[in-house]
């Protein structure tokens, strides 16, 4: 059996704000200090092969904004993958349809489709469930993975299954609390874990049957594709014409009582979709007082708290069942029981025109990262880290000049017609309007301090002339 792992990494939610932001969503977070959720999903897919199953290299479906995060995180764990880019967000049904079109050149493999932002604790149990799902899908069935509820959660989709043959009877989307409570004692109800296993041809036949508009528009966009290194891109205008819809609404929920078999395979492996800070607390390692702690934290007479400190010491005294998440530019303090409402905070900040829901103070770029150290009237100070061999774009700014001081490493600076070589403690000046570039031609990281001066210091004040990353 040939399998193509499809990892869906296009989400950009802020339910775990302030760590999760639209420019750095939760799938790219390392909540336990080790691999990120996305990396763990990729590594799990690397365990699918056995004597009966062989896997193609995975395909990751993500959006343009996060493409370099994906490539860097794949590099860190040594996973080779094709990256299929969505020009704009169109939900998961078009994403899976793109992957199925890609799979047409691979002799109709079984697609093992998984979200990239969930956690699964028991790898062996996951493998057993995955192998059973793949086996059933090889016979032409749609297979979805279900998790037995352990709480009356009203934010999940529920699946009612037949215990006689494992077929899906119906779906219940985010039920009322009384119905969710009833499901705890009913062995036929499962949470929808978001994992779908199906042959590429079966998916394409189904999307054409139930949502011909999505199939047609996605096919048109796929035909416009271009290949650039790791990336497969489609035409933005054509991709924007695809109706947005989820896998569940477009196809899965139409299948019961249709002529296409849909089966459920139970998963008992410590699954959680980490949809709130309370969910993160529940899956985290906790001390005897029930506190889950990341970073420099002191707790006195406090219990059942989740505390994540990123850049400074956080102290708790006499408080219980709260969430504290500290970053360099924002702090969240919330009742743990209401942590699923954190999105309201991000929406409030967004309505005020603030950047806090979108970007961290430290921003990852394909060449490295920058950290906005200080900002005031007509000035901004950044710490810039450039990876060995990397280079920023050849660019200019209309509203600001820049002073660069090398802190560590060696810099090659293009400024107009000049090319300068700078080492530690040396500095240069980039006048407003001058074409310039910063490069690290060495084998060790380059760090500089940049001081911007001007009447407008926004990140959109940039004109790029050359860029090796295709921005």
Summarize the structure.
This protein has 471 residues and is of the alpha/beta class.
Write down the oligomeric state.
single chain
CA distance, first residue to last residue = 39 Å
Mean pLDDT: 94
Structural class: alpha/beta
Profile the largest sheet: 12 strands, mixed
User: How large is the radius of gyration?
Assistant: 24 Å
CATH superfamily of the largest domain: Spore Coat Polysaccharide Biosynthesis Protein SpsA, Chain A
The total of beta strands comes to 31
Q: How many DSSP helices?
A: 11
The poorly predicted ranges are none
Query: What coarse outline follows from CA principal-axis ratios?
Result: globular
CATH architecture of the largest domain: Alpha-Beta Complex
CATH class of the largest domain: Alpha Beta
Number of domains: 3
- Helix content, binned percent: 10-25%
CATH topology annotation of the largest domain: Spore Coat Polysaccharide Biosynthesis Protein SpsA, Chain A
Task: Report the β-strand fraction as a percent range.
Answer: 25-35%
């Amino acid at each position: 059996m040939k399998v193509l792992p499809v990892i869906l990494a296009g989400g950009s939610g802020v339910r775990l704000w302030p760590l999760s932001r639209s420019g750095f969503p939760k799938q790219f977070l390392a909540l336990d200090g080790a691999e990120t959720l996305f990396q763990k999903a990729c590594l799990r897919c690397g365990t699918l092969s056995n004597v009966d199953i062989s896997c193609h290299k995975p395909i990751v479906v993500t959006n343009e904004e996060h493409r370099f995060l994906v490539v860097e995180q794949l590099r860190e764990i040594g996973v080779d993958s094709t990256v299929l880019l969505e020009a704009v967000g169109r939900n998961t049904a078009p994403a899976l349809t793109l992957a199925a079109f890609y799979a047409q050149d691979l002799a109709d493999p079984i697609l093992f489709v998984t979200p990239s932002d969930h956690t699964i604790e028991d790898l062996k149990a996951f493998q057993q469930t995955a192998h059973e799902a793949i086996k059933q899908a090889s016979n032409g069935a749609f297979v979805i993975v279900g998790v037995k509820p352990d709480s009356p959660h009203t934010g999940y989709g529920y699946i009612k299954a037949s215990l006689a043959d494992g077929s899906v009877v119906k779906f219940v989307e985010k039920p009322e609390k009384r119905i969710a409570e009833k499901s705890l004692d009913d062995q036929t109800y499962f949470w929808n874990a978001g994992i779908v296993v199906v042959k590429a041809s079966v998916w394409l036949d189904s999307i054409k049957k139930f949502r011909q508009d999505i199939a047609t528009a996605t096919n048109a966009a796929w035909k416009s594709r271009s290949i650039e290194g790791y990336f497969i891109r489609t035409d933005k205008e054509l991709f924007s014409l695809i109706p947005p819809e989820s896998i569940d609404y477009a196809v899965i929920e139409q299948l019961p009582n249709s002529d296409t078999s849909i089966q459920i395979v139970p998963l008992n492996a410590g699954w959680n979709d980490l949809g709130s800070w309370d969910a993160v607390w529940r899956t985290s390692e906790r001390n005897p007082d029930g506190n889950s702690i990341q970073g420099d934290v002191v707790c006195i007479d406090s219990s059942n708290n989740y505390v994540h400190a990123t850049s400074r010491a956080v102290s708790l005294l006499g408080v219980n069942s709260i969430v504290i998440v500290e970053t360099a530019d924002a702090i969240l303090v919330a009742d743990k029981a209401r942590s699923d409402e954190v999105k309201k905070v991000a929406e409030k900040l967004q309505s005020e025109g603030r950047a806090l829901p979108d970007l961290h103070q430290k921003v990852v770029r394909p060449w490295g990262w920058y950290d906005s150290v200080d900002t005031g009237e007509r000035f901004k100070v950044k710490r810039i880290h450039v990876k060995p061999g990397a280079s920023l774009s050849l660019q200019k700014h209309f509203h600001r000049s820049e002073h660069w001081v090398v802190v560590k490493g060696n810099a090659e600076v293009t400024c107009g017609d000049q090319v300068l070589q700078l080492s530690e403690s040396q500095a240069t000046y980039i006048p407003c309007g001058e074409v310039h570039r910063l490069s690290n031609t060495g084998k060790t990281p380059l760090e500089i301090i940049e001081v911007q001066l001007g009447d407008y210091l926004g990140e959109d004040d940039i004109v790029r002339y050359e860029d090796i990353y295709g921005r």
